[in-house]
Amino acid sequence: MNNRVRSLMFPLFNVLLNGFNFFFHIAASWYLTGQAYGQANALLALFALLSVLGLSIQLLTAKLVSKGDQKLALRSLPLGSLLLKAPLVLTVLAMIILLIFHPLLRSLLGVESGPLFMLYGLIGLHILVSSCRGDLQGRERMLALNVNYYIEVLGKLSLFFVLAALGLKLEALLLASCGGMLLSLLHGWIVSARGLSLFTYSGEHIPSGLWKSLGQDFTDSLMTNLFILFCISIDMLYVQHYFPEQASSYAIALKYSQLVYYVSYSLIAAFIPKIGAQGHDRQALGKLIAVYAGLMAVAAICVYVGTTFVFPSSIPILFGASYQSAETYIPWGGWVYWLFSIVLFFVHVHVLVGRRKFMFSLMAGAAALLVAFHIAHTDPVDFLLSEFIVYGAMALYFVIDAYVHLFKIKIKGDLPHEYHT
Fold first, then answer.
1. How far is it, in rounded angstroms, from Cα 150 to Cα 13?
2. Neighbours of 114 (CB within 10 A)
3. Cβ of 323: how many Cβ atoms within 10 Å?
4. What residues have CB less than 8 Å from 200, skipping those under 6 apart?
């Protein structure tokens, strides 16, 4: 199987992987009841938010590896020693910072210290395994990368059922997640083409221009991933803080709502190579945006049917009758993530064509969301309404921005068919 076929299969396997993760949450709801399930989802939301550290390491590693000789071990590549040491240093720093803020996190989330310490371990493991995944991604070893993700999710599923049978509750979920991540790390370390020495110094000279390029790539990656993970996590943290009794039902609704995001993200992954190759041709980029618009129109029909007829009736079957109150949040949640998927697509377009002004839009959107959450929080639905308004405004801005730059206004100094700021 050549690399092209593997790259095309990756989005499909990604959708299936999200299916396994969805089942993991279903299984967790069977064993964790009441506030415990809400606490578990709040902890996992915090993990999702902080996984931006690992994802940024993964992207940075993938970019540097892809530009080097892929037959060489990682430590033999330019900046290879830096790529090996950076995850370790970042892990230590992350642990120190989390321990400093431990009392505050415990107070905000209303959980005991034990589960929080397990979460810190999960974050550290994720940073390390992300380095291995970046190595595989940079070498276009997509099959091995898929296997690595599946080892994590199937490992944590298996461990969860074993630990749940032993009587562990919240701890079972977190220990299983750590175990799956550890298995993934071991697999990644074995199959990655890396050397054993972490302290080999090759004496390579690093041009100042390369540092600038790396800094820009890392900043773009950090901002993009931070915004995405912030948006899919922050409301769950607020609900756990303000409405712990309703957090479990809200978490169930999010699982359904975020299916729209997971499917859309897999579609975006299929668009990324084309946008990267044709993004500076306005006509070609316009056609890609039109195709995505058609897909989102079909998705809107699916969101309506799913959130109105299918999802509410499946709650007692999949999660149990005690979570039926989650149907209150599902319709709003589906449309929130439909709008968020549109925003996400244009964010990736901006990254791939080098238009960095999108970062100001992301910061403004995140700030508006926090302000809205602090102003209106009499009911969990208020958070969904705030997200609906903010993501709707951002989606409208990006659509107008694309229309202006692609079809209407020729900016002074633009080259023919060039799309930039």
1. 9
2. 11
3. 19
4. 75, 81
Q: How far is CA 42 from the centre of its chain?
A: 16
Q: What is the pLDDT of residue 9?
A: 64
Q: What share of the chain is helix, strand, coil (3-state, %, to 5)?
A: 85, 0, 15
CA separation for the pair 414, 133 (Å, rounded): 38
Q: What count of other Cβ atoms lies within 10 Å of the Cβ of residue 96?
A: 9
Lowest mean pLDDT among 50-64, 83-97, 197-211: 197-211
| pLDDT tens digits along 300-350 | 999 999 999 999 999 999 998 889 999 999 999 999 999 999 999 998 888
pTM > 0.85: yes or no? no
Q: Which two structure tokens, joined as six digits, stand for 353? A: 């064509």
Q: How many residues does the chain have?
A: 421
Report d(CA 179, CA 151) in Å as an integer: 10
In this structure, of 2-11, 271-280, 367-376, the range with the lowest mean pLDDT score is 2-11
Q: State residue 201's pLDDT score.
A: 45
Check if the beta carbon of residue 236 is closer than 8 Å to that of residue 55: no
Nearest-Å Rg of the Cα atoms of the chain is 22
C-beta of residue 298 within 8 angstroms of C-beta of residue 315 = no
Residue 335 contacts residue 373 (beta carbons within 8 Å): no
CA angle, corner 21, sides to 15 and 26, nearest 5? 125
**Residue 354 DSSP symbol:** T
- DSSP for 208-273? HHHHHHHHHHHHHHHHHHHHHHHHHHHHHHHHHHH-GGGHHHHHHHHHHHHHHHHHHHHHHHHHHH
Confidence band of 77 (pLDDT split at 50, 70, 90): low
State the virtual CA torsion across 131, 137, 142, 145 in degrees, nearest 10: 10
* CA–CA gap between residue 411 and residue 421 (Å, rounded): 9
* Long-range own/partner contacts, residues 158-164 (CB < 8 A, 24 or more apart): 160/24, 160/27, 160/28, 161/27, 164/31
Of 271, 409, 237, the closest CA to residue 347 belongs to 271
The residue with greater pLDDT, 180 or 287, is 180
